[in-house]
Structures are given as structure tokens and as C-alpha cells.
Amino acid sequence: MASAGRVASIDIYRGMVMFLMLAEVLQLPKLRQVFNEDNAIGRIAEWIRFHTSHVAWAGCSLHDLIQPSFSFLVGTAMAYSLASRIARGDSRWQLFRHAVLRSVILVFLGIFLRSLGKPSTNFTFDDTLTQIGLGYWCLFLISLLSTRWVLLALAAILIGTWGIFVLYPAPSPDFPYSQVGVPDSWNEYYREGFAVHFNKNANAAWAFDRWWMNLFPREKPFEYSGGGYATLSFIPTLGTMVLGLLAGRLLQSPNPFARKNLVFACTGAGLMVAAWLLDWTSVCPIVKRIWTPAWTLWSGGICLLWLGVLHWIADQRGFQRWAFPLIVIGANSIVAYVLSWTLEKPTHDALLRHFGGWIRTFSESIQSILGAGQEQVPMIQELLLGGCTLTVFWLILYWLYTKKVFVRI
Q1: What is the pLDDT of residues 278-291, one digit of tens each?
Q2: Would you call 164 helix, strand, or coil by DSSP?
Q3: With the C-alpha atoms ordered 108, 112, 113, 114, is the resulting torsion angle positive or negative?
Q4: In this structure, are residues 296 and 240 in contact, taking their beta carbons and an 8 Å threshold?
Q5: Beta-bridge partners for 287
Q6: Predicted TM-score (pTM) of this structure
Q7: What is the pLDDT of residues 198-234, one digit of tens each?
Q8: Of 46, 76, 109, 397, whose CB neighbour count within 10 A is largest?
Q9: Measured between alpha carbons, how far is 181 from 170 in angstroms, rounded to an integer?
Q10: How far is residue 76's CA from residue 71's CA, in Å, rounded to a whole number?
């Protein structure tokens, strides 16, 4: 059950998102290497591989929805945090200072975690925490507005982002993509229409980063991001957080449950249809890596649908026990995030050191049952080690939950 004063649906959703992120230790995409035949099991393994990996450029997998969901829930939490602090008597100046401080902490924490294992500070601004941090203070200012003005701000963010991309000169047909990390054999870039403005490492956000990223100390000049990610994605990411803010206001409203359910369903579906039309007409493709406005609408629509379903199940119907493991994770999401960056390898190595023999024996037993080749044993062993690591992380979070320790920034 959710702790007193907490909204179960938000904790469950946050826990689900963080579980998907923590579950990276399971290395589920490797299942496709074990079950590589073209049969039912092989197709299931391929489906799992797709949805536990990021798409190459355009499109969407389940794994791609982790970051937008996390950002969306930051906005949802803002609605509750703002109401709580105002009721406590905090002035707007105090609230603004807190928002700016949180922004700074998130940016520096993101850079710190991204620098682990690097020879020097890795100044990067495209990961989840830094993207949220860059826009959080602005989210606070928007949260002070009426809903009508919040909607206008959202429209300005999305239209403005689209304008930045389409006003930047489109790459010519002979643009040297191979010089910016895009192989000639890559089939994901666009060749005509407005969509060419959103090609990997040939767009406005890429051009901005070639200036911005080189303002910071680097081992060598920044030329492009291997994944095509960009700092300016924080602007449309702010749009995702604003959608979360609106969802939080809807949850807080005195409207009947039936009306809330209708708004969640219709708005979520409507945003997805709008995004699909923008992508289909090539006006704006659905690309997560540069967080196109169409991606903001598509992922935001899914977030609204997920939160709406969880609100109906957990808050309205009271069915929460099934989600207790997720609530435990969601109640300390920032701890879960840091755990995934700092303790994955030490935990993995400790488990292998102390229980490696048992894990290998169990892996060989599974290999025998599945009829897999002997060469698959190490891969099965990695899957088991990942499961044990995930269990250790959950037990740490469970201990914090039982002690009612909830870490916040």
C-alpha cells in the first residue's frame, strides 16, 4: 500500500518506470541470441529485444518511454509540491529559489553520474537528469499560471521547437553524413519533405551543440553525438513536464472520477493521433533522440493513458497490493536512479565472487532444460546475475521504505 499522504497511482507509475530502467541489468536483448530461430519463441525473443532497446531513430519502443515518463511525472509531482508548499506558507520567492536550486542539483548530479569511469568531467547535457534540470526552473514558473496560460505555454514550446528545426537550413543531398557518425548504409535518415530538417546530426540541435559543447573542457573538440542526442531537447522535454503538470492538476481537481477518466483517455488518444498525423505527413517525425514536438505529443499521450489507467485501478478502485514492489521503487526513484549508475558493477562483481559457482551450475541446468548450446551458458549466467543484482537493489529500496526514508532533491 502507498504511504499516507502519497498518491498511489503516481508512485506505481514512477516505480514501473524505474523498474524498466533498473531491469537493464537483466540484459534481456541478449535473449534473442539464445533463441535465434524463426519460430514462436524466437519471435517472442525478438519482441523482447525490440522493447528493451532504443529504436535507431524514428519510432518508439517501450524502452524509449522511460525518459519521457520520468519527465512527465516530474511535472505531475510539481502540481502536488507547489500546492503543499503554498499551503505551508512559503512565498513565491522561496519557491523560486528552491526550484532553481533543484535545477542546479539535477544538472550537476547528471554530469557527475555521466562522468563515472571517465578520466575527466564528462560535460554532457542530454541525459535524463540534466534535461529535467535545465527546464525545471521554467516548469516552476509555468506552474504559477492558470491552466489556460499553461496550455498556451505548451503550444509555444512545441511550435517554437518545430520552428527552430525547420528554419535551420536542411542538409543538402550530398551532405557528408559519414563525417558526423551516420554510416552511408544507414536507412533511417529522411531524403525529402520537412522531415529532412530532423535528420541525425544534421539539424539545428546538432549545430547548437557544436558551439555549446565546445565551451566546456574536453579531451577533443565535440563534433557530434554518436546517438544523435542534443542539449536543446530540454525545451520539448519541458513540454513533456508541462503535460505532467496538467495531469497533476487533473488528479487534484474535484471533478468526478468518470470525468477524469474521460479526460485522460480522450486527451491521451488525441495527442497520439495528432503525433501520428504529424509523422505521417512528414511535417514532424516522431524521434525520441532529439525529442521532436511529435515525440512530445506521442509519448505524452501514452503517459496520460498509463497514468489514467493506474489512477482508475489504484486510486479509484483501491487495488494497490499487486503493485507493492513497484510502489517501493517509486517511493525512492532518485535513489533507484543513482543505484543503477553507481552500484550495478560492484553488486554484479560481488555476487559473482561469492555465488559464482552456484550461479554457473544453475545456468548449466537451465541450458540443459532449454536445449541451448553450451556456448549459451555464459549468456544465461549474465541474465541470472542481472536478476540477482535487481533483487539486491529492490531490497535496498525496501529497507528505505520500511524506515520511511524517502530521498528528495
Answers
A1: 999 999 999 999 99
A2: helix
A3: positive
A4: yes
A5: 58
A6: 0.93
A7: 999 999 999 999 999 999 999 899 999 999 999 999 9
A8: 76
A9: 18
A10: 9
